[in-house]
Amino acid sequence: MAISLQPFFEWSGNTWLSLEIRDSTWQFAILEMVHLAGLAILLGALVVIDLRLFGFGMRNMRPSQLAQELRRWMRIGMVTVLGSGVLLFFGEPMKLYGNPSFQVKMMLLFFALLLQVTLFRRVRSDSVPSGSAMSTIIGTVTLVLWFGVGLAGRAIGFL
Amino acid sequence: MSLLSICQWIQQTPTSTGIRESQWVFPIIEATHLLSLAVSVGTIVFVDLRLIGAAMRRQPVSDVIGQLQPWALRGFALMFLSGGLLFWSEPLRCYHSVFFQAKFVVLALLGINALMFHSGVYRSVAAWDKAPDIPLRAKFAGYVSLTLWTSVILLGRGIAYFSH
Asked: How far apart are CA A98 and CA A95, in angstroms?
């Protein structure tokens, strides 16, 4: 039996929160701007760490040291993006239901978050030597996934 | 020749019309513009966070700047290139957009801030390079940069939102 998510999307669209966001001229726009600013922090931290994994950027620090130092900012970026993202979702759930870009984005997001709590965690614990094949793989995959999330996110408005 | 007539002229060039009306080129340029944000503003944010003492406090300031700034500049090159093409594709919309005008004023202020920092307090970096807490003037440059770059992002999003 196929499980449809449609009732969930419909329910979301009828909540007080959804009405509140939809009825306001500014809330959706402001949320989208917060979403973008959070993206700059999250992807910025990711780029700085991934550059180091490729052997560029902050070369005077060990990758683990850098990842630990920037962990706080990755979290701040992540909480900002996810928080504003959930609110944006409530702002137009029925528009997102069936939107191919949104579906791709959620899939990429799932894998990006999965890697974040598995492979990426290893970067912090010094178990990934600098310049190893493993560090290049982790850097490439996380960059591709998170940039993919960003691209698919932009595409929601186009498709 | 006024700014408006220049924009009108650009608007009717074949390249401008071509980008504007293409199904894929405009979205691709816009996506490039958006994602180079991570490389440019994303890396410069961490230089600023070091300046205000909120990240990598034990790293020498000159280290953070020397190693991240080249990447920020590469990102900015991509940003200006894609941004230039976006402008080229809809110059009249930009001309009439308050957000576009404000964005350029803020970008100019950012240039001045960076220039003042590098030609001013940064010259004496050797004296405070390893201090977690750096001179107020250098810290101030970090706060100014963080605030202004945030405004650039918000104003940039505003261009697409509020002008028709």
From this structure: 8
